[in-house]
Amino acid sequence: MKPAIRAMDVAADRGGSPLPPPEQRSALGPHELSGPYESRNLGDGFGLTQFGVMMETLRAGSRSSIRHWHSKSDEFVMVLEGELTLVSNEGETLLTSGMIAGFKAGVENAHHLINKSDADARFLVVGSRVPGDEVHYPHDDFRWAVNDDGTWFAAHKDGTPY
Question: How many domains does the structure of the chain reveal?
Answer without folding.
Answer: 1
